[in-house]
């Protein structure tokens, strides 16, 4: 039997280890990237030269760094300069700092995330450490609880929730796994199915769902507007979502952005 159930898709596992690894590798990486946390320059190990963290220019002048809008970014709260997906940092570097190819320093800006707010949908307990949450849920699964008994959300902070990949809402997982073709993050891999889970352990191989594509599109829309100083409103987000999903602005066409709870989560996640 496979008592451990993914809380993001319908996959089930024999061991706690495989379950934890699946959630981390396919859904929530538990890594974050902060923009330029060690200042605007770094020392090149081979030449001992001071270089610009954004474009590697030697001895960058203050004007050069101002052009990159380094201080403008640093003045923002840390939460707005921290991203739970690397591609979101790369996007920020392009839109905010005019860096096309990503910075050579990105790996140095990465940190492991150990503290993530979350909740148990079986007994409503809340956690601040991911490992505590996993130990707790594992005990429930050993008692035989099923995801169809899960109530409510995962309790993730909005910025973290927006970074979750290949996921479906927890209250749908129980219903979905009873269907004929259950949504499984690892089964969506296009590679040799005989490799099973192993081929999916490299992130980014699975196709994004339409919902994820919409979220990605709206994240880019908001960041582009913020970078050019255009105010973002509920209406402009909803209209952008409509034209992305349906190709027109007919208000009869409803998207996730027309759901007030989702819109609030999205705006919190984007610091709006
Ligand atoms: Zn999963
Ligand atoms: Zn920045
Ligand atoms: Zn530069
Ligand atoms: Zn619990």
From TrEMBL:
PANTHER family: C2H2-TYPE DOMAIN-CONTAINING PROTEIN-RELATED, FINGER DOMAIN PROTEIN, PUTATIVE (AFU_ORTHOLOGUE AFUA_8G04300)-RELATED. This is C2H2-type domain-containing protein. The keyword Transmembrane does not apply. One of its GO terms (molecular function) is zinc ion binding. PROSITE patterns: ZINC_FINGER_C2H2_1 (PS00028), ZINC_FINGER_C2H2_2 (PS50157). Residues 4-32 form the C2H2-type domain. InterPro entries: Znf_C2H2_type. It comes from Penicilliopsis zonata CBS 506.65. Keywords: Metal-binding, Zinc, Zinc-finger.
């Amino acid at each position: 039997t496979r008592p451990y159930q993914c809380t993001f898709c319908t996959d089930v596992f024999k061991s706690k280890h495989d379950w934890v690894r699946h959630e981390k590798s396919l859904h929530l990486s538990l890594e974050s990237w902060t923009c330029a946390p060690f200042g605007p320059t770094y020392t090149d190990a081979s030449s001992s030269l001071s270089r610009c963290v954004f474009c590697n220019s030697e001895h960058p002048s203050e004007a050069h760094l101002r052009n990159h809008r380094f201080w403008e970014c640093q003045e923002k709260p840390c939460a707005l300069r921290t991203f739970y997906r690397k591609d979101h940092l790369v996007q920020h570097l392009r839109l905010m700092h005019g860096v096309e190819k990503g910075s050579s320093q990105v790996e140095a800006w990465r940190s492991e995330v150990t503290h993530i707010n979350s909740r148990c949908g079986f007994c409503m307990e809340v956690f601040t450490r991911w490992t505590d949450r996993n130990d707790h849920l594992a005990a429930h699964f050993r008692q035989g609880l099923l995801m169809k008994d899960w109530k409510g959300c995962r309790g993730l902070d909005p910025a973290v929730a927006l970074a979750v990949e290949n996921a479906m809402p927890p209250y749908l997982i129980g219903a979905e796994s009873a269907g004929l073709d259950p949504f499984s993050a690892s089964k969506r891999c296009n590679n040799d199915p005989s490799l099973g889970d192993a081929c999916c352990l490299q992130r980014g191989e699975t196709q994004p769902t339409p919902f994820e594509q919409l979220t990605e599109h709206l994240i880019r829309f908001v960041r582009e507007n913020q970078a050019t100083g255009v105010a973002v409103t509920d209406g402009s987000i909803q209209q952008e979502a409509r034209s992305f999903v349906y190709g027109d602005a007919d208000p009869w066409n409803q998207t996730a952005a027309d759901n007030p709870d989702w819109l609030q989560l999205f705006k919190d996640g984007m610091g709006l």
